Amino acid sequence: MTDRALVVVRAGALTTVQDEGRPGHAHLGVPRCGALDAPAAALANRLVGNPAAAAVLETTVSGCALRPRSTVTVAVTGAPCPVAVDGRPAAWGAPVRVPAGALVEVGTVVGGVRGYVAVSGGIAVEPVLGSRSTDLLSGLGPPPLTDGTVLPLGAPTEVRARVDVAPQPAPPAELVLRVTLGPRDDWFTREALTAFTTRTYRVSPASNRIGLRTEGPALERAFPGELPSEGMVLGAVQVPPDGRPVVFLADHPTTGGYPVIAVVSTRDLPVAAQAAPGTPVRFVAVRRR
């Protein structure tokens, strides 16, 4: 039994292993996946001295609890939350030295949705198609963590950030998503396009890593009928039969038959990862296809 391992004491609502994802396999039906808030995951890795591509843990709302079998450095970023080591408060957004056998508790978020836990050496589960990421849609990669899971760790480096705390953006009070209209905006009425780009929606509690679902005005089709299934990209805004836009995130399907009214700028997607249910959402058209 190796001492370079991490024991999951409490898995939380949904904790998965994530890295930079597995791009380039859409033609095989495999989504990119990877950390939804990529800048937060990269920052956590920098704080503990890992390369940017090292795998981290992505938590959802309720955090997790972990026990390393050897002394490690841990950093928690993303959604702000309390952090404790053996019951004593520890820093969030900064490297924390954790002795072997100590309990690291990542608490419930006080804002946002997803936290990122980096451990020196990185989570060293076996890669699939070049990535260690959990893909909830296809089932590739390790399954979501459960209590008692043991995760292998890679070899640590001696270089880590020397900071008291690293600045991070606050979770959004309002989510503003810049979009390029198309390719199927002609499937909607002029009134629907106006509503889409001027009315306010809200993040639905049904949102997940596959898509950010919205609540708000339904978008009316210009004519009936269905599209043949076609390729989908990260950030595509698909409109299902209920008329409420869905923004495709990292675990999205690679094909779909509902019309895509617009595509969100990839620069805005990390912020979408931290938009809690009920957060107002506005779609702002920046250019047409």
Walkthrough of the structure:
It contains three helices and 20 strands. With 289 residues, the protein is mainly beta. The strands form four sheets. The chain has a seven-stranded mixed barrel with strand order 12-19-16-17-14-13-20. Strands 7-6-9-4-1-11 form a six-stranded antiparallel sheet, with no helix packed on it. A five-stranded antiparallel sheet has the order 2-3-10-5-8. It is elongated.
Q: Any descriptors?
A:
single chain, 30% strand, mainly beta, 7-stranded mixed β-barrel, 3 helices, 289 residues, 6-stranded antiparallel sheet
Distinct helical segment count: 3
Biggest sheet: strand arrangement: 12-19-16-17-14-13-20
**Oligomeric status:** single chain
Mean pLDDT: 94
Q: Indicate the radius of gyration in whole angstroms.
A: 20 Å
Distance from first to last alpha carbon: 56 Å
Share of residues in helices: under 10%
Molecular shape: elongated
Low-confidence stretches: none
The overall strand count is 20
DSSP strand content: 25-35%
- What class do helices, strands and sheet pairing give? mainly beta
Q: Tell me the series of helices and strands, N- to C-terminal.
A: EEHEEEEEEEEEEHEEEEEEEHE
Largest sheet: 7 strands, mixed, barrel
